[in-house]
Amino acid sequence: MIKTRGYAALNGDQPLQPFDFERRAPAPQDVQIDILYCGVCHSDLHTARNEWGNTLFPSVPGHEIVGRVAAIGSAVDKFQVGDLVGVGCMIDSCQHCPSCAEGLEQFCDNGFTGTYNGSAFGGQENTYGGYANNIVVRQEFVLKISHTDNLAAVAPLLCAGITTYSPLRHWSVGPGQKVGVVGLGGLGHMGVKIARAMGAQVVLITTSPDKSADGLRLGAEEVIISTDPQQMAAARNSLDFILNTVAAPHDLDALLALLKRDGTMTLVGAPADPHPAPDVFSLIFKRRKLAGSLIGGIQETQEMLDFCAEHGIVSDIELIPMEGINDAYERMLQGDVRYRFVIDMASLANN
Q1: pTM reported for the whole predicted model
Q2: Integer CA distances (angstroms), 310 to 147, 148, 168, 304, in order
Q3: 317-321 and 30-39: which strand pairing?
Q4: Backbone region of residue 65 per phi and psi (left: phi > 0; alpha: psi in -120 to 50; beta: other values)
């Protein structure tokens, strides 16, 4: 067993605190990783506070992991000690259902195993995530990182990056298309960057006028303030695709009205409470589609990392020490981060 130091939520009502535990020693197909950086996702907060009602305590969050290979199992053939690698939102799946066979492990018919808060296949133990100094993962779920610098800002690509890349890729976003991105947070700012790099004309849709300048800096060519009825009316029937990243319940009809005939709006934000039901007439009269998307499979996540490295894309981050995580959660709730917190795991040595 490997001694591990991390931070955990012991229940949903207490702040995260230092937590010592053990990882398994590497099996033949395992990669042991020393974690350098871990991004902070809103899902971490939901889980730590049991807002989805499914948390297995103690819970060590974190699924945006960048680190270096410290050891490998005897059968590992994809990685070597010293390699720079990443781990995203899942660390296992059944590997034999139709979805897994198609490289869509995120839709595993038997349920993928989350990097944290998920019972491991073949066992009942809780999985512990990246708010820790190390992790052990099967090589099939470890990713190569080819970025050469700003590694802390690479970490959020393992969730925010693939969550936005996957639907943009699936719905073939590219040159000649006008694409709306709703919300400029951890997901939205990645959506703007990636859609622009794919060649689309990007329109940021936000409730916050003070984010207009940032939206343009990040790659949007236009900004629509969704609380302004005149701006929304002027944009009706103008967008080919909308990537909706907002993780709070809101009216979908006003956004659907911005789509052209046959346009699609895809939801990637996960609100704690449901959105109001959309008006069916918003869909049927223009043959519009309302869809959803999760993360991406391992192959697509690797594709995303390579795409971002090629285009120089990383997240806009604020680097924090591990002991700052509880303050970071409170600031996330206030929207006080532009646009992703990342934990410097070297700070664990101080705890």
Answers
A1: 0.95
A2: 8, 11, 17, 10
A3: unpaired
A4: beta
Domains belonging to the chain, first-starting first, are: 2-159+296-302+314-350 (3.90.180.10), 161-292 (3.40.50.720)
Spell out the alpha helix ranges (H) of the chain: 42-48, 98-101, 160-170, 186-197, 212-218, 229-234, 253-256, 280-284, 298-311, 325-333
Nearest of 27, 115, 38, 68 to residue 298 by alpha carbon: 115
The answer to whether 87 touches 130, Cβ cutoff 8 Å, is: yes
C-alpha 257: how far from its chain's center?
Answer: 27
- Unique residue bearing structure tokens 């695709």: 241
Q: Which amino acid is at 221?
A: E
- Per-residue pLDDT of 271-327, as tens digits, reads 878 899 999 999 999 999 999 999 999 999 999 999 999 999 999 999 999 999 999
- 3-state SS class at 23: strand
